[in-house]
Structure formats: structure tokens, C-alpha cells
Design brief:
17 helices; about 20% strand; about 525 residues; five-stranded antiparallel sheet; eight-stranded mixed sheet
Length: about 525
Amino acid sequence: MSTKSGGHRRHLSVVPDLPEGPTGVPEPRGRRSIPALLSLVDEITASPTTGGMTGPPPGTTAEDLRRHLAESGAPQPFLDHAETYGDDVDALFVWLRDYGPVFSERQWAADLLDHWTRFLAPGVAAIDAERFGAEFLAMYDDDSIGMITHLIAEAAESLRPEAVALARTLASVGPQQIRRAATDSAQKLVSAGVPDVWWATDLGTGEWMGAEGFADPGQSEETLVLKFSIAGTPHSFSLLLDHRRGGGLKDAHLVTEVAQLHRQMEIRAAVSGLTLGPRTRAEAGRILSAVLALPVAALDPDPLERVMALLPLLRSREHLVMVPADVVPLDPPTVTTPVRRLGKVHRIKVSLDRTRPAIWRRLEVTSGTTLAQLHTIIQTAFGWSGVHLWVFETANGEYGDPDPEMAFGDAGRVTVAEAAPTVGGKFSYLYDFGDDWRHSIVVENIGAAGDVDYPRCTAGRRAGPPEDCGGPGIYGDLLAAMSDPDSPAHRAVLEAMPLIPDQDFDPAAFAAGPVNHALRLLDR
């Protein structure tokens, strides 16, 4: 679907006609560009019994497909993921078309490592490997982290130099869980005597070089160029932001011809009657942080593929752009230290929406706290029982208990730091889909951990509403009735909702001490 309105409207460009990335290094394209990612569906459709069908053969069940997958020697993480589709044979078939391997684990890793041989050749730079690694990760969705970490470990068993290249790269541009697994594998390989890649120390050590950009008169679209240098190799990200769709990325390119890009940007701006101007580091940092927290705005397949392929690399550059006081950076990968946010604490304010007077808690949690753990912390802080469905809604997706019917990502795989990496970051938590208790979460501060127990509650207001009381609206009616115990409304409310406590319940009560005592019991 086109977002253009009218036949003469001018749209900005991110200059797609320049060379993108290092020359001579082919990048993967599409989910099946790596030959090793053969699919079970290919084998099924080639079978004489299926007649070359493009969908599940008549009478085929999801269990039939899983059995075929197991007999083909697929690794356990693939088998585990296939189980999440239950009886939905169509959905399982689609997933197998994109991911289902029909080869042994050893062949799986060996075929993939063949594509990393080029990064052992002279003249390859860290940016080459990072670009390839980012596009490789873009072929997978969030539910594939277990498969990728398994792949990294299996590749390390080969003791091939290519496995070091793979591990070092994914330790630089991958999400947190992949970074940890990749760093551990790289360390084991080097300790076993496998030669390290010479560009390993350059990964994650890029230098901020500046930014420039322009926007159309209506501020509906904006072009931003971010300039970096890694080990003396300059490169720029050219980003197109669509403010009509929330400010997310509409298109993106990685360009190594930095001077040529600047000249063409000047021309494009002039043609549109605009001026290409510099952006301060603080401005660029705020824009990039916002963009990475927003849903992607690309609609057409080609721009969407480019954006998704560059997002991991952009995220790995965020800490280079942000002013140090405004962000807690990801530690750059090193030979000996896994990348993680050790020693950092997020101070968050969790407010219960649509409640008057307001009900809230101020919590301090380690930045590596997973959203699954935060769910338990919030339940404890508000006095909930945890018996209902719940989900976190973030800029990067919805996370809860992994359930194929709900299509939630696994909250146990996402940290608070990943959901809200900067001060001012926001996301929400919904508990009890019937009563609709929605909590707004805002990051108030990110700092070093003190000599105290985490998590902890430092402040709050009012008691959490009783479980199953009907939601914010009905709870408001309850409070109004309880304000006058002698009124007919008070008795009517209590009789209509027997689960509501009587007048011994104090809605104004709050004390941090009992909350912290309950939080300390969580680790026992």
C-alpha cells in the first residue's frame, strides 16, 4: 500500500544509488539466501507422495511434520520451536518453509561456516563482518534466539577459524542472549588454540564522527545521516524517518562512500528547496534512541528488508551517538568480557492507569532483569496474585508467557534495559485481560548499583486494587461507595461483588517496608 497522497507530492530520499557497504563481500538476501537453510517443505514438495504441492498435503497433521523434522536430524531447538505451533499445521508449514532444516547438526554448522571463510581473508575490516552479521540476524525473528545460540555452540565444536569470526561478529551486533553465547564460544575457541580474527579488537570500538540532515516543510519525513569510523574506516547510515507513521524508519542504507553521500545529500536537499544542515550529537542521539524504540514504518518489501538488515548494526552504534550522561551504553565486546549491563540499575515508576487518586510504585531493578522477572516484581509490589493473563507492550513487540495462540514473544528473553534502554523510555504492562489493569512504566533514572538488595520499592501511593474487582471503572465506584459506609450504595456494591473486601480494606494504605520484605522473599 502506498503512503503517498496526490500525484505531485515530493518525498525525501536516503540516496539508494550509492554503493552500500564493503564491496566484494556478498550479503545474505532473504530468509533462504544461505544454502544451508534448506527447508523441510522442499523435501515434502519434492516427494512423489505429495505431488509437488506448495501447501500441507491433504490429511497431513502438524504431528506428521514434526515427526518428519525429527527423522531428518534437525537440532533440538528446532524441534522445541516446532512444538509451539500445536495443531496449527498451516502455521507450522509456513515456518518450516523458512527455517526447517533437513540436515544433521554437524552439516548445518559446517554449511553455515563456509559463508564466513571470506572474513579470514586479508583486507577484511570489522565493518565488513558486522554488516554481514547484522543481515544474517535479520533473517530470523525474535523466537529464533534459541536456534541461533545453538548454532553458535555447534559451530564452536568444529574448532574452525570461521567459528571465531562468526562468534566475534554476533557478539558485537546480536541481542543480549546471543551476545553472551557468542562471547562464551569465542573465548572457548581462542582458549583451545584456534587463531583469533585480527579485526576482533575493532568490533564495538567505533568512533562518532557527526550527523546532518533535513526535513520536508511539513515535517512529515526527515532524512538523517549518522557518521562513524571504525578502525579508520568511515561509514554512514542514511535514515529516512516517517513522522506520519510515528517517526519510525521508512528506509535505511549503510554507505562507505561518505564524501559522495554528503554531496548527493546536498543535491537532494537543494532539489527539494531545503538545506542540509548539521545535527548536534545530543540531537542525533535523541532521534536515534526514539527511532530504535519505535515500530518500523517501512511498508514496501525492499525498504523493509534494508531496514531490518541494518537495525542490529544501528543498535550496536547507539552508545556511540548518545551523550554519556543520557544513556547507559552496552559494554563493547572484548576478548575476555561478555557484553552485558553489569552493575546498572533502572529506576522505574509503575503507574496504574485510569485510577483516581493515582496508584503507583517506584521500583529499582537491575538493568538485566527480564520482563518475566519484572512481571513477578510488579505483582508483588501491587499485591496482585498473578492468576490472570499478562503482557508487556514495548516498542519492539509484545512479551509475556510464550504462547502461539497469543503470539507473544518470550518475556524471559528480553531485559528491562532492552525494553527501555534510555532515561525517559516507556512501555506498558497489562494484567488481567478482563479487568484490564494497565500499568504505564517510565524509566526515571539509570545508574550504578548501590550496596543494597535489588529489586526494591522506594516509594508508592495507595493500596493496589483488590483482585477481580472489575477493573478501574468499577473500582472507582467501589471507592465512592466505601467513602460513606452508611450509604445504600456501599452495601449494594459489596453485595454485588462479594470478592471485594469490606471496610477493613484501606485503599489509601501504602508502606514500602512490607513490599520490600515480600520482594526479598522472591529469591528464596
